[in-house]
User: Fold this.
Amino acid sequence: MTNKIITVGSFFSGIGSPEKALERLKSEGFIKDCVIKFFSEIDKNAIKSYCAIHNIDKKLNLGNIVDIKGENLPYCDIWIGGFPCQDISSAGKMKGFDIINSTRSSLGWEMIRLLGEVKIKPKYIIFENVKNITSKRFKNTLNLFKKDLIDLGYTLYYKVLNATDYEIPQTRERYFLVAILDKNHKFEFPKPINNNLRMNDFLDKKVDEKYYLTNKEIKMINNKLFFKNKNSDDIRYEVDLDKYKRGGICGTDNCCKFHQSSRLFSELGYAPTLMANNTAYNCKIVVNEEK
Ligand SMILES: C[S@@+](CC[C@H](N)C(=O)[O-])C[C@H]1O[C@@H](n2cnc3c(N)ncnc32)[C@H](O)[C@@H]1O
Assistant:
């Protein structure tokens, strides 16, 4: 086991999922420990969750990144920053993350400012955002962002990874930008892992009845099953059994205004990308209780 203790500075911390990955490296013996020196978050529920999940004091929260002064930051080996994606995501208005536009996503540039202000720069930085950041629309801004990091002395490695390639049965493509200060330290993204894990490998076996939308089958026509919602006869679901068996999108409901939200997903496939505004109405999974 390596004796390495990694110190971590977290920005846009949310619930701190990358920090969880570092904890996993610790439990698997790759590092001796990881110590969170500070985090930065403004959402009160996220702060509560972050402290509970990582078992740390809320005093370590530096709050709004805009108010942080780089010269006051303690040295950390790694900075983590999954900066806001609302203005980059194809699910939003795509206002972009230009530094002058002051969108929520342009807050990512605050980390560049802090890198210019700190006494000792972190050896490693991991930025994360939605795949759409690599689209033509945002190419120039992303190039400027990368150029600033190169000017600060970092070597960059970047790639879009899909969670389905790493044993998580959810279609979730994310752009990762890894910046390393030591030019001699080469980095390779992990190769995809072949696996057969699908949503039903992760679903709870016992689920409270209140979470089910229906169990009222009404008819079967040409390998299609029709159900009605347990609380409303007006809401109906159509499930294509062949598609269910193949995994993926296997049906629709008739009540959703938007095509995307009307989709039903087979438990034998991958879950869709979950968004901040997901509700039971736009992420519906078809499960077969008679297996
Ligand atoms: C995309 S999420 C990051 C999620 C995080 N990587 C995780 O694992 O949960 C962006 C986070 O940035 C936070 N945020 C937004 N504006 C901020 C600001 N000015 N200062 C600090 N955090 C901010 C949001 O509350 C949100 O939790």
